[in-house]
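call fold target=AAA domain
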Amino acid sequence: MNTPCSQQSRPNLPPVKLTRNRTSPLPVPHHLPKQSLQKFYRLLLPNLSPCSLQSRCDTMNEDLLERFRRGGRGRRQQPVLDVWIQPQQLNLRVREYLLDASRPVDGGAWLRRPEIPSASEVLDTDVSSATSSDIVEIATNRPVGPWDSKESYLSAHYELLREDAVRPLREAVSQVRITPNATEDAFGGTVGIYEKVHICAITCSSRGLAVRVTFSLRRTGKKILWEQSKRLITGSLVVLTPAEDMFQKTAIVATVAARPLEGLAMNPPELDLFIARAEEMELDPAKEFIMVEERSGFYEADRHTLLALQHMMREPFPLSEHLVKARREVLPPQYVVDNPVYDLTSVLRNNKHETYENVHILRGWPSQPSSDLDASQIAALHRILAKKLAIVQGPPGTGKTFVSVQAIKVMLANRKHNDPPIIIACQTNHAVDQILRHIAAFEPEFARLGGRSKDVDIIKPRTLHRLRETAESQTSLAGSLYPISRKKMREIEKKLALLLSPLKPSKIPMDFRLLEQMGVLTSRQADSLEHGASKWVQEELSHTAEARTSPFRVWLGKNLVPVPVRQQAEEFGFEFEEADLAFEQLRELEAENVTKDDEDYETLSGMTYTLADNFTGRKVAGVTNDKVRAALKEQDLWKIPETIRPAVYRHLQREMKSQILVEARGNVLKYNNLAIDRRAGTWERDETILKHQHIIGMTTTGLSKYRGLLHALQPKIVLIEEAAETLEAPVTVACLPSIQHLILVGDHKQLRPHTHVKSHEDKPFFLNISLFERMVNNQVEFGSLAKQRRMIPEIRRILQPIYGDLIKDHPSVLNTANRPDVPGMGGVNSYFFTHQWNEARDEHMSAYNQSEADMIVGFVEYLYFNGTDTKDITVLTFYNGQRKRILSALMSKEHLRISGCRFNVVTVDSYQGEENQVVLLSLVRSNDNNQIGFLGIDNRVCVALSRAKCGFYLFGNGMLLYQNKTWKKVIDIMAGKKLKHERPQLEPMRLGEQLPLKCRNHNETVVTKSADDFEGLHGGCQLKCKDILPCGHRCKLNCHPFSHEMFQCGQVCGKPLPCGHGVCEQRCGRLCECKTCSKPKPSMANTLGQPEHLQFDGQERLSQHSRGTSNSDSWKSFAKEEHERYSLAAAAPPPRLREVEDTTQLLDITNNEAVVEHVSRMTVADVEESGEAKARAKDFQIGLDGSRSKTPSEDNSEEAEVSSTGMCEEKSYKEVVTLPPRGAAQGQGKFEKEDWSQRESLLD
């Protein structure tokens, strides 16, 4: 047995056995004395305070005494795990990967292309200056057939992908060069143009050195909702050019480093940029640039894939026999050949448990095992486990993700102790989180790379950022690049701070001694400037402190002028640009594109150095550069004529900036290279965390972005979900040298991958053919899932033209308990409403059909009245223009909006993998040119037809679509025509120009031909309801399926008044009041008691300026003043209660008070007893006029005092918020953005 002394004397100690208890976050060595324990914890936690160290060791010794007192090993508190703590070993594969990238390799010119497009590539000078023999045509993809070689395959995909990424920006630059003064509207909203761009600061961040710029939004002509705009998102590619050049000769390519919302909200807005090449870095705050962005493209998504394709020429290419040579027969992965016996009990069941414990999956796969999987899923599971290139096709609803999860479960059950993590990648962040949630149910050791998960309970704690925070060992990794590179970066930051000091904001002009040190002035010139040439100058220098520090003040006199603010605040009225994305969607997109996984995509952390010119010389006409250079030959600067001195000062400024810039560019290059080393160092530390994980999930973009880190982990298995929706190149780069097993799960019949340039999807490029589809086209082995668990048979049959007889129904969809009929439709759960309403185009050239949109909105309202929650209804459309109009029309339905309804209105392209109970499909296209656009693409049609579970309703021009082969078959099926395939016989036929509805109360069929037919239709038929309401009146609504408690009777009360003065003339449900007895309160009715000077005179002012427009000065002045008043409403004092006569008064522009209609119905006794009215937040009813009111059940009828006539004596109160007078606080208060952004987010 070793003693502590012998342990200390031995140079190489064996690892110390540690246990970790639930009550202790750190491992506990159970055999070390107190002194050794202190040394141990100092090594493990160098930042632990002495007090904490002493306390931890005392606790440990008490535990030891207690154990020995019991005469045994003692009881441990439920040990979680036992580990052997050893010093972390540095994995050198990360730096080897990065060093490999800089090593020259034999091959074509594509291998030497830069990571970021060059200026010549963006300006297209390479092509315009080349001869016809020099221009190389872009290679095309090969949907069928093998490639000639590894390089021909990789180079073709590199050139295609790069052209697809760069071409939109190149065309945008070309358009701006041709029409330099055009606004954004001239380019249809696809080009972002930002003028008056000035550099205002630089930031030294961990990701590299960035420049901060201010810019003008004048050419947008609108305010930007940055929280929901795709403009200038992190990772976007932009091009800058000097304002006087306008892309004739000069272009500076940059990427958006960060877009902090507080910076963009400034006026003018600010933004951080990474300049692509250090030699193009600019620092002059006086220089003005134009910045251009192509808004439809997104280079960052392809940037890392392009680098990875180049790197693959430097390493072995596993699976190339299939990916390059298109070999059809697929063999097992090598690790399965070495160990083919698997335990399948995690997914297969049997009375004899041992039957599936040792299954030779290459020779003895069970024939008919008992499992939750159907036969096709079990066959797919076998394929996934036993083929090194496993391709599984899953039609809609067949359980693709479920099979993937079961395969992962089997792999984890059979993994060896030292096996590397399994990599799972999906096209979207949503899909990644979804599959990881399934895996988390049985595997806690998983990690999420990249993205921004909204799942705070399951996924968020397993992000790499969080795992870093909770890592057990916080000690630095010996030999890592991280501390070395960080130290060197700090040294360069100090150099830059000193170098840029002449450009920092200051109240004095340039330092003439600094100009001397830089060689801009000679020593004699600097001395002459300081000492002067006459006695009065010396006296001036001795009296003024500023003059002593800066003789330029005296030398220039009035010709020294402060530099004005580069850009003034801009006003755009109240018009906002339309939102592109919901806030959360945008944050996800940005988070996915930052280089580091530490959630720094919103702000760029690091030292920031503000740059400014401070002072300059007054511009003087007629002074040439030759005159300035001749003047500077004079050694006594006081002999230079005063008329030339301002130009000399400006020349000295330019020379100083030029020298600073040269020196700065060299430091920037070093700094950015060190940032790469620092990232490598971060990955070296991350590798020590991730190597212990069993599963690592990311998007397909992450496969490229984290490829160096994945290379260090040496994974064997990669599973790609949504593989048929992903471009080939991002999947190809997953083939790291260590990969033995590639699993592709998807459906090539559904959506194909997206390209930035639409022409690249067609012949001859075929860029949107995925690797999944290409392998199927080449007849490489693949399997298919067959039983769908989503759609009722009535809907599933519509997919027959696409899948034939491949899809079968699972018993679960035949059960009406699982798939009930759509309420109010009388068993008609699918229908094609055909019309001939013409389409139109919006300002972005997106198709829409207003009549069709109105019809759909009326139908949504009808379904809602019949009890279908709006969250269970999805409206799909192929066109964004139609999506906007449908959503806007739904939002205009007040009773839907005030009921808190949320609407699912989305485009088909964004809905793959999703489903809902009821789906309404808006087809839009209806024209005389027989053009159907996206509707002619079978992949998109397949997605659109397969999202509904219980009800599916199509709206479109059936006559136009009937000319398309696929749609003809769909329409024939819905029309009930007898076809060769087997299908349910349905009556009536599911096609017509009238949409049949079914009244649930009277069993009457109601037909609707247009949106007008839904007017007055409250979910039933046209018969009158006539039921007696709780108030005693008859219901005047048409037949309706919902309860009478959902609306407020609006008829005249008509009950006798207790005072005997006739009957109540108020509306039912309001205060019963006698007009003879009550005293009029004109001041309340009109101004609610406000002083006269606070009364709003907007009507008078508007009439005076009735000819003004939103751009006129009078309107801007009026609007700004009123906007500021209403902006302060949120900060107003708590509301007080006032009694008012008429509770129907709404907020009126002629009042100076915002009346918030929180109508609380209280008895007089209640108010007098409590001394105050207690506000009650209640649900509201739908009135006959669509207004809100409380339900009768909410009124405390037991407490209300009822008179002998049965009248409830009530008084109505309103909460009144008094606004400050106009002009009382100019410029104070902030616009409440939350309400606006919430409403705008509903429009996407």
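return ok
The longest strand covers residues 191-205. The chain has a mean pLDDT of 78.
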